[in-house]
Amino acid sequence: MQVNQIASFQMAKELYASHGIDVEKALEALAQVKVSMHCWQGDDVRGFLNRDQELTGGIAVTGNYPGAARTADELRQDLEKAFSLIPGKHKVNLHAIYADTDERVELDQLAPRHFAKWVEWAKEQGLGLDFNPTCFSHQKSADGFTLSHPDPQIRQFWIDHCKASRRIGAYFGQELGQTCVTNVWVPDGYKDIPVDRMGPRRRLKESLDEIFAEQLDPALHLDAVESKVFGIGSESYVVGSHEFYMGYGLQNNKLICLDAGHFHPTETISNKLSSLALFAEGMLLHISRPVRWDSDHVVIMDDELLDIARELVRHDLLSKTHIGLDFFDASINRVAAWVIGMRSTLKALLRAMLEPTELLRQVELAGDYTTRLALMEEFKSYPFGAIWDFYCAKNGVPVREAWLPEVKAYEKEVLSARGSKLGEAKKLV
Ligand SMILES: C[C@H](O)[C@H](O)[C@@H](O)C(=O)CO
Ligand SMILES: [Mn+2]
């Protein structure tokens, strides 16, 4: 660590201490936070099963930046690169289509053995794993319906896929000694105005009941359910709406997943946490950045991310909240996208931990809103950057933008040989 970094840290630490903020305690708390980094940013949600299928489910990846991972080994190599630039020990969030196997296997037949290489790797790297059934990009979801499909056979296929996914999740939890969250998201919905809004929701509920019938040890495995307001091709009606899953999750003790991009454009998930936390067993966050719609832009430290972090810290919700990222941007270097999203999320949490929460609470209760506003504003320019730099250096990862040349070098040495989606092996400089 450089001498000037230590000096800046000491000065900042004293300043925070003068407001009763224990910086060392904040850093210890930050080190406990595991963020689940989504594997699908690394290859534009293609996966390794059914690679010939186009991405469906009303989600879209834009951009043609060269270097997407084409195999599980390449994806793991890229994940390792990204984690080497992010402080702390975290988790990787896998989708079912990322099975690493030579077998030709259908989604409903997936088993733990198809993910053994991921487990072996996660053990070596000291990472946890989370999981998701993949209910899209498949011929059986081509008409936009899966778990709420009117055809019982198709519905059963997706039910069996979700059951298989939970067993894989439980296997991750067992093998890695840390709880795996398996999150169910389905794209089901109508482009145009439906007549029957209830029927598909009743079928989805019945499918979920069947999927969750098998009891799994909650120490090893937790279920989450993710809602959405609309998708491309399901603009008028989404079966798994927020009300649907909030009801389902609360009634059945499931984690409720809030994706930052899955609500109306002016609706924020930060404002939902304090309500949900009073009633729910726990929450899963898909931190994303919607720009005008559910565009899944790379997460940055914007106002909403800071507000999410503040809510988690101020109300002591970190222990009942599982934090995951969910974005897919193919217009920039994909490893950089992960690093930016992860570092921003951790930085936002640290910033929230360095706020004088107790003091702000007291002035608010006393009705002194002038002091509340003044302090909240002044604390925005407090030297949290010096504390973040120290944390990065202490964790042996690059300080500030020093990670970028490492990504550029990796791009030159490794990614440029892979080419772009259009097929040409474009050389990058
Ligand atoms: C690939 C993910 O499962 C997906 O992004 C889902 O979580 C979602 O947010 C769909 O819009
Ligand atoms: Mn999501």
Outline the structure in words:
- By secondary structure, this protein is α/β, with parallel strands linked by helices.
- It has a single domain (33-353, 398-418), classed as Divalent-metal-dependent TIM barrel enzymes (TIM Barrel, Alpha-Beta Barrel), CATH 3.20.20.
- It has 14 helices and twelve strands.
- The chain has helices spanning 3-17, 23-32, 72-83, 116-125, 152-176, 198-211, 242-252, 270-279, 303-314, 334-353, 357-365, 369-378, 384-394, 403-413, and strands spanning 35-38, 91-95, 128-132, 180-184, 189-190, 221-226, 237-238, 255-259, 283-287, 289-291, 293-297, 321-325.
- Helix 8 links the parallel strand 8 (255-259) and strand 9 (283-287).
- Helix 3 packs parallel to helix 10, helix 5 (152-176) packs across helix 6 (198-211) and helix 9 packs across helix 10 (334-353).
- The model is unreliable at 424-429 (pLDDT under 50).
- Its EC number is 5.3.1.14.
